[in-house]
């Protein structure tokens, strides 16, 4: 990025609420059903039907707003946003315009090596989703036709609009990760970008150094519906590069909506951007204002779960290094796995180390999630206890953990079946030590003449003879004792 411009980014995040039924009718919201099987006259936009607000959706929206530090308004209202598109049977979307559910929130991001930064949230409003078009053919450009599926039409959404506070693609990524983590603890959404239950539009503009005007007046490009956090980052990076190039050639940036081509890693023009007044918003006549009693909001406030900042604080107090804590906090399943494990085995650091190294690797390689990991918290703890009791060395335990994933057996069963247990019997190890010393007189001489490395070789020989099962610190001690007792330094 050159010195001449500053990157200005604002994000609009749509989050599908996981209510059982749609926002204004009783149709199921289940994902993946046969096309157009979850529809009724209300979500098909038949004339004469009346919408009724789903109370559970409102509750989830309020929970989300509070988790993102917003002020929830006791009164908000619904409006019609009018536009024509085949996935919108009513030709308008019920949304909230000038009186949204909540405003003035924030999310804290932690860019590496910098102070944490507060990113403001302008507003959160409730609205209904549109249906889905399935294009026949490879790409929209050469589609031979399009099929309309209205199962998604009317599914409740919240739209979370940030202020244009973000200054780089990396900051946008951190914002999305933090936002998703906060919402993940609320059970309000699946938050799966690849399934569309979380979607992100990025508004990107470049501000010339010394520009005095309003940010709103900068030519803004909106990148629409990108399907992963990684692609949001790529899309912004590309857009910054493109706009900078145009501006340096003295060209104007056109205010427009652009799509992101995953395969080519570039944005492409879709249409010129609408202004709010193009939508002809007006108050939804079929719905009364949304009035929330103070008691209702208070009750939700009092039932909030622990959120990332409180969890970070708790992990810090329990001695977990900040970097490890961050991994746990940002992945609710990992954090819950951790909580379950430390409840059974209160050595937080040990659990964390095993979880974030060997266990994480195996979970990832096998494409499992922590919640459904083959090796659950109690089995991991069983393994750690075998190390504590001296049955397994740390090295052996790593192998046993792999076998636990492979065979789905308990660590005890694997130890028994493979005859793995660590040899801690001094007599047994002593015998091996004696024969190793007898077989390697010159190495013993080296050691006696001061070569420390020679001892490591002898330890290695004993470990080899016991198939790695001798307890390492015991081998060390017995070797030294035996040499001191039976061998003397050459004169
Ligand atoms: Zn319906």
Describe the structure.
- The chain is of the alpha+beta class and 491 residues long.
- It folds into three domains: 5-297, no CATH class; 306-417, no CATH class; 426-486, Orthogonal Bundle (Arc Repressor Mutant, subunit A).
- The chain contains 15 helices and 16 strands.
- It has a nine-stranded mixed sheet with strand order 2-6-7-10-1-11-12-13-14. Strands 5-4-15 form a three-stranded antiparallel sheet, with no helix packed on it. Strands 3-16 form a two-stranded antiparallel sheet.
- The model has no long low-confidence stretch (mean pLDDT 92).
- The structure holds zinc ion.
- Residues 22, 25, 27, 39-40, 42-43, 154 line the site of zinc ion.
Task: Give the SSE map.
Layout: E1 5-16, H1 55-67, E2 71-72, E3 75-76, E4 79-82, E5 92-95, E6 102-109, E7 117-128, E8 132-136, E9 145-149, E10 156-162, H2 169-184, E11 198-208, E12 221-226, H3 229-248, E13 256-261, E14 266-272, E15 282-283, E16 290-291, H4 294-302, H5 308-317, H6 322-329, H7 332-344, H8 348-365, H9 377-388, H10 394-407, H11 411-417, H12 426-439, H13 441-448, H14 453-465, H15 472-486
Parallel strand pairs: 12-13
Antiparallel strand pairs: 1-10, 1-11, 2-6, 3-16, 4-5, 4-15, 6-7, 7-10, 8-9, 11-12, 13-14
């Amino acid at each position: 990025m050159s010195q001449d411009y500053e990157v200005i980014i604002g994000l609009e995040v749509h989050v599908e609420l996981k209510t059982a039924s749609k926002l204004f009718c009783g149709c199921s919201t289940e994902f993946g059903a046969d096309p157009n099987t979850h529809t009724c006259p209300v979500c098909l936009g038949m004339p004469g039907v009346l919408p009724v607000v789903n109370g559970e959706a409102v509750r989830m929206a309020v929970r989300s707003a509070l988790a993102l530090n917003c002020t929830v308004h006791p009164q908000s209202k619904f409006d019609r946003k009018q536009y024509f598109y085949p996935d919108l049977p009513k030709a308008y979307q019920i949304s909230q315009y000038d009186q949204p559910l909540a405003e003035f929130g924030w999310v804290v991001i932690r860019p590496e090596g910098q102070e944490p930064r507060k990113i403001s949230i302008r507003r959160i409003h409730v609205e209904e989703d549109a249906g889905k078009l399935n294009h026949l053919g490879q790409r929209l450009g050469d589609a031979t036709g399009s099929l309309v599926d209205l199962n998604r039409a009317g599914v409740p959404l919240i739209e979370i609009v940030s202020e244009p506070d973000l200054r780089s693609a990396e900051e946008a990524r951190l914002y999305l990760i933090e936002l998703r983590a906060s919402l993940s603890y609320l059970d309000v959404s699946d938050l799966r970008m690849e399934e569309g239950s979380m979607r992100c539009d990025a508004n990107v503009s470049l501000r010339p150094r010394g520009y005095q005007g309003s940010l709103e007046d900068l030519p803004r490009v909106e990148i629409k519906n990108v399907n992963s956090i990684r692609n949001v980052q790529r899309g912004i990076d590309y857009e910054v590069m493109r706009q900078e190039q145009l501006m340096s050639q003295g060209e104007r940036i056109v205010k427009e909506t652009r799509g992101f081509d995953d395969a080519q890693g570039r944005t492409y023009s879709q249409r010129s951007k609408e202004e709010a007044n193009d939508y002809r918003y007006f108050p939804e006549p079929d719905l009364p204002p949304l009035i929330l009693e103070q008691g209702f909001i208070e009750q939700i406030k009092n039932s909030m779960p622990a959120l990332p900042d409180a969890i970070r604080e708790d992990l810090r107090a329990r001695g977990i290094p900040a970097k490890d804590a961050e991994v746990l906090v940002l992945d609710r399943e990992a954090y819950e796995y951790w909580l379950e494990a430390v409840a059974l085995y209160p050595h937080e650091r040990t659990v964390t180390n095993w979880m974030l190294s060997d266990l994480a690797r195996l979970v990832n390689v096998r494409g499992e999630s922590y919640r459904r990991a083959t090796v659950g918290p109690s089995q991991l703890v069983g393994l750690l206890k075998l190390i504590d009791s001296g049955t397994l060395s740390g090295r052996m335990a790593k192998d046993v953990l792999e076998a636990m994933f492979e065979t789905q057996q308990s660590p005890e069963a694997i130890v028994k079946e493979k005859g793995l247990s660590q040899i801690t019997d001094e007599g047994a190890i002593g015998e091996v030590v004696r024969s190793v010393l007898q077989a390697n007189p010159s190495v013993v001489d080296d050691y006696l003449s001061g070569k420390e490395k020679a001892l490591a070789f002898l330890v290695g020989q004993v470990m080899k003879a016991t198939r790695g099962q001798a307890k390492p610190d015991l081998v060390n001690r017995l070797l030294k004792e035996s040499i001191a007792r039976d061998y003397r330094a050459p004169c």
